[in-house]
Amino acid sequence: MKKTVQVNIGGCAFNIDEESYSLIEEYMGGLKRFYNNTLDGKEIVEDIEERMAELLLERCGTGNVVSVADARYVIGILGTPAAFAEESGADNAKPQERPKKRLYRNPEGRIIGGVCNGLAAYWNWDVTLIRLIAAILFLASFASEHFVLVLPVLYILCWIAMPNADTVQKQCEMRGEQLSAAGIGQQYAAFGPSNTQPAGRTAGRVLGVILGIFLFMTGLSSLCGGVFAFCLPSLAGLNPEIASWWAEIVNEFGLESIMPLGISTLIVAAVAYAIPCILAIYYGILLTFNLKSPKWRPGLILVLIWVISLIALAVLVGMNIIKIIPLIN
Question: How far apart are CA 16 and CA 6, in angstroms?
């Protein structure tokens, strides 16, 4: 009968026998000594430990005891410090083939959903350049009223379609690095926080503030204009001048045709109009003050409510049109 202990590896609790515990403890100690004098060494070891936890979960699950075979299997995948020290020091070592990259959303340093960050990692571009291109395309879309929502809708679709790189394995796959301790070390050497250029951070921050202020002002002005327009019929009954102005607007735009749609349809239409304005204000505040979205994702919830309101609006308008058709005939 073997004695088991409960240990925490990479934030996950595991039941592990004493021999396996000694093996893993010795391995992690070797990694700490290997990366002791390396910049970002602590972060590299933490990421390797997190990767080890993912591999153990895949192999053993949550309730099983980690055996010596399991520990050796995981260490074999990650590689020993001696192995990748020898690999990095060999003069005639054959370069390993880089794994094929996969497209993920990158949560590290994201501003909204990590789409631009993920594209930058996939194409090996500067993320500031990707964000600048997105901002220019968004501003250019205002030149044509038919393409204003194309970029936001495309971003939302990418947000939904691209999986989130929320594990060390996915981070390695996103950048095309080896799924090993050496690969994680190479990832930090190429993309770690210590090598982030201050100029790139400054340019990205300035761009974020400009875009944030623009989104905030656009959303606020659109929301205020919508509230005023929604209240115009009520104000028209109180002020003769507004009543005359409202009558001209009704005649010019044919708004009398929407009056029979009913109050419920108008309320749903108001919600469908207001949510994009609120989203613009919300993300404008996040960008301007460099804040992170809460874990319960209010932006994503608002997007879902907006989609539901659009579907409800289409159903209500369709039902009203069906009612009006017999009257027209």
Answer: 6
Q: Which domain holds residue 36?
A: 4-88
SS3 state of residue 105: strand
In a domain, 311, yes or no: yes
- In sequence order, the β-bridge partners of residue 301 are none
Q: Give the SS3 label for residue 164.
A: strand
Q: Which residues pair with 16 in a beta bridge?
A: 5, 66
Low-confidence ranges of the chain (pLDDT < 70): 1-2, 62, 81-99, 143-148, 168-169, 177-205, 232-243, 245-247, 249-261, 323-329
pLDDT, tens only, 68-126: 888 888 877 777 766 655 555 544 444 455 667 888 888 877 777 788 888 888 888 88
Crossing angle, helix 240-253 and helix 198-236, to 10 degrees?
110
Taking a C-beta distance cutoff of 8 angstroms, is the pair 288, 229 a contact? no
User: In the block, which residue shows the tokens 């409510």?
Assistant: 305
**110: in domain:** no
Closest CA to 258 of 317, 323, 327, 308: 317
pTM above 0.90, yes or no: no
Residue 9: inside a domain: yes
Tell me, yes or no, whether 109 lies in a domain. Answer: no
Spatial CB neighbours of 57, under 8 Å, sequence gap ≥ 6: 12
Q: Which two tokens stand for residue 74?
A: 């995981």
